[in-house]
Predict the structure.
Amino acid sequence: MGSEEGAGTSSLRIDLDALTPAERRDLANALLRAAWSAVLEETRVLRLDLLVEVDESVLSEAA
């Protein structure tokens, strides 16, 4: 494993051949969990924005 830094970017290199099958599985699971968490966070923000817009329209109709 190693990391390199360039002009404002970072990367991580992992030699998969050096990992055991269990370590590869754990890495794949960790990457999937991170991706899923990022998607869920974006979905939460979108749902909150929608809720705020709906609440504002409902409140302005009632007034």
